[in-house]
Specification:
This protein is α/β, with parallel strands linked by helices. The chain contains nine helices and twelve strands. It has three domains: about 1-10 and about 195-280, 4-hydroxy-3-methylbut-2-enyl diphosphate reductase, catalytic domain (Cobalt-precorrin-4 Transmethylase, domain 1); about 15-95, Rossmann fold (3-Layer(aba) Sandwich); about 95-185, Cobalt-precorrin-4 Transmethylase, domain 1 (3-Layer(aba) Sandwich), CATH 3.40.1010. Strand 10 (about 210-215), helix 8 and strand 11 (about 235-240) form a beta-alpha-beta unit. It binds iron/sulfur cluster.
């Protein structure tokens, strides 16, 4: 059995940068708190916790020292509270998320109502909404958009959504609210990294008989990657750890493809490849 890796897989630059910033702080300065998991991956969080990174939900739980904002970013009130409490800030907000936050802030300040194509409960979207200072709303369903948002509307996207989905949403909203609108701005704030992983798994699916997707089940981007893999019709196995691999899945197959979500560390992917080779595959 031949094992082939997707051309693009695993940690995206934003997550890699966040993990490196936290590791560097731990090495040079000692323990710190992180506002939520720095990456949606239990093993990475466990590794970082051994080195002194404690996960907290709120700034108020941090007595003293340093606190890291994750790559998903946070709202302005979080940064204000960190400053007010005299804590040291390690800001790992991904530059692509930062750009979306800036757009949300600017549009709201210019008097637009900001409509975000995204999941309201996702930490990144909660942060984006905060940057609108009450002049924003998030949804994935154009039918949920109320018609009384004013006549100036700005649309942006959660970074991990697809570019085409975003433009579909823009068109559907404009069609729905059209007569009420005087001015509409739409800015594509999606991140190309997520799309690159989807394209790579689609290409890989052409060359293999089954796909293994590695990453946490609570990582939205890994779940979506598994969905894209399944959409190709190839048998797809979403696993969190190499030990979950079952040789029965691969009986009679000659080519298996492997990919990983943007929050999956390289070491975990390497373990999966190693184990697949042990099941009779070759790298
Ligand atoms: S997926 Fe894109 S926006 Fe999200 S952390 Fe990675 S690089 Fe940044």
């Amino acid at each position: 059995m031949k094992v082939e890796l997707a051309a693009v897989y695993g940690f995206c630059p934003g997550v890699r940068r966040a993990v490196e910033m936290v590791e560097e702080y731990l090495r040079k300065n000692g323990p710190l708190a992180t506002l939520g998991a720095i990456v949606h991956n239990a093993q990475v969080v466990e590794e970082l916790s051994k080195k002194g990174a404690r996960v907290v939900e709120r700034v108020s739980e941090v007595g003293e020292g340093a606190v890291a904002v994750t790559a998903h970013g946070a709202g302005p009130e979080v940064f204000e509270e960190i400053a007010r409490r005299g804590l040291k800030l390690v800001d790992t907000t991904c530059p692509i998320v930062r750009r979306a936050q800036e757009a949300a802030r600017k549009f709201a300040e210019e008097g637009f109502f900001v409509l975000i194509y995204g999941e309201e409960s996702h930490p990144e979207v909660r942060g984006l909404l905060s940057w609108t200072r009450g002049r924003g709303r998030a949804t994935l369903n154009p039918a949920d958009v109320p018609s009384d948002l004013g006549d100036r509307l700005a649309l942006i996207s959660q970074t991990t959504k697809g570019r085409e989905e975003f433009w579909w949403f823009v068109r559907a909203v404009v069609e729905r609210l059209g007569p009420n609108l005087r001015e509409v701005r739409a800015l594509d704030t999606t991140c190309p990294e997520t799309g690159r992983r989807y394209q790579a798994v689609l290409a890989l699916a052409q060359r293999v008989e089954a796909l293994v997707v590695v990453g946490s089940r609570n990582s939205a981007n890994t779940r979506k990657l598994a969905e894209v893999a399944r959409s190709t019709g190839r048998p797809t196995f979403h696993i969190e750890r190499a030990e979950e691999l079952d040789h029965e899945w691969f009986r009679g197959l000659t080519r298996v493809g492997v990919t990983a979500g943007a929050s999956t560390p390289d070491a975990l992917v390497a373990e999966v490849i190693h184990r697949l080779q042990g099941l009779g595959g070759e790298g």
